[in-house]
């Protein structure tokens, strides 16, 4: 079995068992509680993560939901975040306070709910949200994020790096991971008569993580002022770089990603 064949088989083994329709059904089931919290300030509830982007894998991918709140909301973003947390707690979900999302369990799903305030310009879909880790706000555009990743020709490599991250127990936030893979493979040329080597592309990403990620700023392609790499601590970057180097030196693919 060639390296490309091994990785293709691995991707089949990790194919997400749920699909977009099931994710939408869960969102519909959670909507009454989210609508009760948001009241008349609710603008929309939309899927926002790997299921929407087409990068979900079994065993790792949570369901991400963006709860878009009207620009008429007058409280702070931090107050909005903790208000959602209290509401979900009162509804019996035992919420987890995460970085920009509130995590809950719903059936067999782990759900990350992101409360975000829509900005007044209705044409941009820009939202402001609270970052618990940095203690400040962030502006982003979920619709453009989804489009940027879902239209990328490197979703297969993104899935492999997610598996690699999971198997080695590494901290690597999903959107930063997706953007890192796209940045690492920027400029790669698709052969005319043959598909690109998945193994070669994967190793190229690992070399980028080893050599570039510790000291390079990874910029949000949707919002240039967002430094996505700041979501990782120096130690988390060091661990990623170190594991990438160990994986590159490993002669057996079964020990790199499995």
Sum up the structure in keywords:
globular, 258 residues, alpha+beta, 9 helices
What would you say this structure looks like, in words?
The chain has helices spanning 3-13, 20-38, 50-53, 77-90, 142-150, 155-167, 174-184, 198-211, 234-249; strands spanning 42-47, 63-69, 96-97, 102-106, 109-118, 127-131, 136-140. The two termini are 14 Å apart. It is built from 9 helices and 7 strands. 43% of the residues lie in helices and 16% in strands. It is of the alpha+beta class. Strands 1, 2, 3, 4, 5, 6 and 7 form a 7-stranded mixed beta sheet that branches. The longest helix has 19 residues, at 20-38. Strand 6 (127-131) and strand 7 (136-140) form a beta hairpin. Helix 2 packs across helix 4 (77-90), helix 6 (155-167) packs across helix 7 (174-184) and helix 6 (155-167) packs across helix 8 (198-211). The mean pLDDT is 92.
